[in-house]
Amino acid sequence: MEMEVGIREKKLFHVFHKVPSGDGPYVQAKYAQIVMKDPEGSIIWFWKAINTGDRVDSALKDMAVVMKQLDRSEEAIEAIKSFRWLCSKQAQESLDNVLLDLFKKCGKVDEQIALLKQKLRQIYEGKLFNGRPTKTARSHGKKFQVTISQETARVLGNLGWAYMQKGNYMAAEVVYKKAQMIYADSNKACNLAHCLIKQARYDEARYILEDVWIGKYLGSDDTRTKNRVEELLLELDSKQPPHFLQNIPGLNLDDDFVNGLGLINEWARPKSRRLPIFEEISTFRDQLAC
């Protein structure tokens, strides 16, 4: 009877602390990581798990995540590159996702671009979805279904952002537009607008931000999206002169006098811009299109 109670308590312990059952190195690593809050100690056990072949798929990925938390990202990258051949085919995509996060952490933009292009090639060849229209993904412990279109647009969006970090705004623009054609959302729309601002194409950027504001994209109603639209519009206003000063022959926009006219923005517009006129502008534009 006492033995049965002990076994039941052990099972409940593993469930409560969300650690796997057993006594191998991987279980010891998870115990050190989650229960003892000893990340350095967990890495030692993760290495033992990898070297002894104990749940290598999970051990390598989890160790890399812990290393990233300890600012040992370079070491984590080398560990994945050196030992991923020990992992199953099913684990490779997860390892690529961890690598992308590590590359971002280390500022390795070229490596991000190469890996994202590789993922796009795998999607095109049907390797990531195994011929199925959807796949199961996991985020914050929850499972959900992702379509090929959603995943392709997500990877393209990340590629666009990587090109932005390189200052290659023309390439970023092409990638963002392609992503929006496949599966549009407000985040990529704002990134595209930001890309256009960097190329001094202010009217095009404002047009996109207007559409985000009036809710034409998925996620437009999110508070963070609204805040980002306002931030980008403030950036636009700081770079673009008032409309009545544009297209005047012989006007030097770098002239100190014209720069001084930036005060007009403060007089003519409220400091907290909630864009009340966007719906009127949109209605007028729709009428013109008819």
Automatic annotation (TrEMBL):
Alphabetical list of Pfam families matching this protein: TPR_8
Keywords: Coiled coil, Nucleus, Repeat, TPR repeat
Cell compartments where the protein resides: Nucleus
Record Gene3D superfamilies: Tetratricopeptide repeat domain
Keyword Nucleus part of the UniProt annotation: yes
Keyword Coiled coil: yes
Cellular compartments per GO CC: nucleus
Chief location category: nucleus
InterPro entries xrefs: MS5/SDI1, TPR-like_helical_dom_sf, TPR_rpt
Parts of the chain that traverse the membrane: none
Family: Belongs to the MS5 protein family.
Protein name: Uncharacterized protein LOC104243541
Name of the encoding gene: LOC104243541
